[in-house]
């Protein structure tokens, strides 16, 4: 891919101070690329060094944006990431942590508080997108107006992120239980007027929820998952990528089977690249579809499971499509 030069003025936060970036990576070539991309984004490089500098015992001042490449973290690295995660929350800093698929569970477990962007074996373009997303989160950021060519190039780089954002914008968790919301992540409503009964005032406005049906047989859910994967053998899988649904199906089956699902396993189940899957997981946690559950035996690990509300929604969904199937038979 041709490297495009973006020309920005120095980016600053609302107070007018330049946004500083700290880079920690053992690969000198990677550090060089990151330094170039940080400069191109109009950010100010505070420091750039290897992981030993970050892992040093002394607490060091850090930039408002901290980029760490940690492909194979050992025990010291994981402990440092945990401390960095806590510091980022206290200082209001933002983190981008890149790692390997083999180490994803360990890194995910260490970063429970700051909601960093975790990249898995990322190419350079994904690192650029991550910087762009961080810039978008900074209020009152001052960047020079892009030229039309720069704008089109940036649009191509962020197209994938844009598709994700469009879907997530449809998720709205502000809808009340018992009310229908066109954009809600959950849509719980009375299935018929027969569930609206008299309340204490005699107005008939009380709403009694229909008891939740049981979750479907795990074998049925696994069959649906296999069918969805088979489709990709004959049709372009990218055209039908639906990572949120694939993950909900996988977690539904796991809940019935009393199985715990690691973040790595869930990324694989999503059918999309791990970095993309992680963005979905974080957003689905934010809207209440998924829960992050710490491992009691190892606090550095975490699992992902359906929230109770999501389990309720999946149970009702499968019950309804089962009724539709019986009506057609």
Task: Write out key terms for the chains shown.
single chain; 329 residues; alpha/beta; Rossmann fold; Arc Repressor Mutant, subunit A; 2 domains; 5-stranded parallel β-sheet; 3-stranded antiparallel β-sheet; 12 helices; 46% helix; 13% strand
Structure explained in plain terms:
The protein has 329 residues and is an alpha/beta fold. It has two domains: 20-157, Response regulator (Rossmann fold, 3-Layer(aba) Sandwich), CATH 3.40.50.2300; 218-328, Arc Repressor Mutant, subunit A (Orthogonal Bundle). 46% of the residues lie in helices and 13% in strands. It contains twelve helices and ten strands. The protein has helices spanning 28-40, 51-55, 75-91, 104-110, 124-137, 148-157, 159-169, 218-234, 243-256, 263-270, 274-286, 308-328; strands at residues 20-24, 44-49, 65-69, 94-99, 117-120, 196-197, 206-207, 261-262, 290-294, 302-306. It has a five-stranded parallel sheet, sandwiched between helices. Helix 1 links the parallel strand 1 and strand 2 (44-49). Helix 1 (28-40) packs across helix 5 (124-137), helix 8 packs antiparallel against helix 9 and helix 9 (243-256) packs across helix 10 (263-270). The longest helix is centred in the last third of the chain and has 21 residues, at 308-328. The chain starts with 19 loop residues before the first strand and ends with a helix. The model is unreliable at 1-10, 140-146, 151-157 and 172-199 (pLDDT under 50). This is HTH marR-type domain-containing protein. It comes from Aurantiacibacter atlanticus.
């Amino acid at each position: 891919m041709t490297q495009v030069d973006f020309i920005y003025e120095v980016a600053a936060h609302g107070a007018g101070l330049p946004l500083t970036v700290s880079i920690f990576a053992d690969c000198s070539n990677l550090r060089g690329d990151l330094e170039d991309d940080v400069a191109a984004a109009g950010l100010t490089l505070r420091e750039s060094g290897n992981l030993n500098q970050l892992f040093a015992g002394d607490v060091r001042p850090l930039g408002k944006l901290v980029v760490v490449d940690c492909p194979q973290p050992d025990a010291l690295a994981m402990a440092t990431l945990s401390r960095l995660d806590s510091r980022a929350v206290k200082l209001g800093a933002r983190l981008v942590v890149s790692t390997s698929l083999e180490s994803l569970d360990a890194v995910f477990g260490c970063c429970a508080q700051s909601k960093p962007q975790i990249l898995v074996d990322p190419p350079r373009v994904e690192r650029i997108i991550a910087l762009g997303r961080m810039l978008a989160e900074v209020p009152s950021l001052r960047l020079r107006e892009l030229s039309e060519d720069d704008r089109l190039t940036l649009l191509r780089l962020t197209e994938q992120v844009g598709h994700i954002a469009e879907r997530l914008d449809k998720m709205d968790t502000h809808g009340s239980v018992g009310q229908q919301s066109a954009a809600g992540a959950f849509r719980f409503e009375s299935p018929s007027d027969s569930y609206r009964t008299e309340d204490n005032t005699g107005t008939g406005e009380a709403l009694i929820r229909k008891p939740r049906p049981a979750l479907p047989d795990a074998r049925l859910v696994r069959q649906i998952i296999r069918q969805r994967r088979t489709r990709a053998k004959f049709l372009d899988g990218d055209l039908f990528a639906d990572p949120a649904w694939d993950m909900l199906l996988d977690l539904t089956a796991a809940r019935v089977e009393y199985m715990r699902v690691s973040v790595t396993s869930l990324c694989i189940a999503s059918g999309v690249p791990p970095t993309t899957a992680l963005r979905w997981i974080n957003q689905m946690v934010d809207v209440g579809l998924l829960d992050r559950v710490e491992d009691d035996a190892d606090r550095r690990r975490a699992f992902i499971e359906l929230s109770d509300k999501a389990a309720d929604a999946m149970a009702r969904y499968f019950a309804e499509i089962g009724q539709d199937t019986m009506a057609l038979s």
